[in-house]
Amino acid sequence: MAATQKAEDMREENIAAWQDPGIAEKYTRTEAATIPFANIILDKGSIVSKITQHNCAINAFDFGCGTGAVTAALYEKVPKEHWPNVKVLGGDISQPMLTYLQERGEKNGWTGLTTQIVDGANIQLAPNQFTHIFANAIIFFLPLGALSNLFELLQPGGYIGMTTWAALNWYDHVQRAVNNMANPPFFPPFEEVRAMLQHNNAWHEPSFVKQQLENAGFQNVDIVVEKRTVAVGTPEHFCESMKLPLKMFAGQWEESKRDQISKEVMEELKKVMLEVAGGEEGECYMTMEGIVGSGWKPVGK
Ligand SMILES: C[S@@+](CC[C@H](N)C(=O)[O-])C[C@H]1O[C@@H](n2cnc3c(N)ncnc32)[C@H](O)[C@@H]1O
Predict the structure, then answer these.
(1) Is 240 in the pocket of ligand 1 (CB under 6 A)?
(2) CA–CA separation, 45 and 273 (whole Å)
């Protein structure tokens, strides 16, 4: 299959996977893994002090917002009396995620929040409008040009904070599950899985992230690599969150056997995670190693 066709197929599979009506409910548990990095993104942009000490109004774009990890962290950090100075657009390819976030915002009184379908591969938003852009665990799903498009959306002097993964710690559990099977299906080596997830780009390397931000035009680019161990729920919850990455492997299995193999892998994975967590109600942990890149749009651009 030609590389461009494969990339296009992967893009369509990725978009389809996020349209599952139950995706937001499932993702709220996975959000535990992205929240620590949402906080780092916000701290690096000194957003709270901008609002509380300098009375600046924030007009932020939470890009690939999902269930709103960054938006929630922002409202948590900013004292309520300053909320009228906060505007956030949550943009995502997934309507179920946006509906969830909109309801979350209404419940919590985040009156500055609006949501909108945005496809990161074809962003149709007015340029020079945002003071801040947050892109937590999204950029690696997209073609390389996405960062330049985000640059255009920022006001001069605006801030971007983004996260990619330096490591994929769930891979070992899934591999162990596959190896335990009587007839293990083909399971791609780690490097191949990472390449599939990242469109063949080296988003797991801090120097690559820095280079991409600089290529897009950002200045004062800063990179931090941080590890956080997070609780991601019971073995059942962990397996649920693995359904999405598993769809990617399933593409390599014979179509007529795909559903059956996926089911068997899930059953083995559940056994592995029961052992790791010490039972049905035990907690599963993941060590997330994130690369947080941040930068600023030059004032004169
Ligand atoms: C790993 S989640 C991260 C969600 C959130 N930023 C967080 O910190 O938890 C990735 C999100 O990117 C969204 N997404 C995937 N492909 C996209 C695209 N082409 N354009 C916009 N959003 C996309 C998914 O729907 C999902 O909500």
Answers:
(1) no
(2) 37
Report the relative pairing of strands 285-296 and 154-165 from DSSP bridges. Answer: antiparallel
State the pTM of this model.
0.91
41 token code pair: 């993104």
- How many angstroms is it from 45 CA to the middle of ligand 1? 21
pLDDT in tens, 38-59: 999 999 999 888 888 888 899 9
Does the beta carbon of 146 lie inside 6 Å of ligand 1? no
What CATH class has 3-296? alpha beta
Which of 2-6, 127-131, 162-166, 187-191 has the least mean pLDDT? 2-6
Residue nearest to atom 7 of ligand 1 (CA): 69
Domain ranges across the chain: 3-296
Q: Where are the beta strands (DSSP E) in 148-191?
A: 154-165
Q: Is pLDDT of 96 > 70?
A: yes
- The answer, yes or no, to whether any atom of ligand 1 lies below 6 A from the CB of 40, is no
- Ligand 1 centre distance from Cα of residue 180 (Å): 32
Hey, whose CA ends up nearest to atom 1 of ligand 1?
Answer: 137
Strands (E), 54-194: 58-63, 86-92, 113-117, 130-136, 154-165
Q: What are phi and psi of 161, to 5 degrees?
A: -130, 130
Identity of the residue numbered 46: S
> Quick check: 230 and 36 in contact, CB under 8 A?
yes
CB of 65 closer than 8 Å to CB of 97: yes
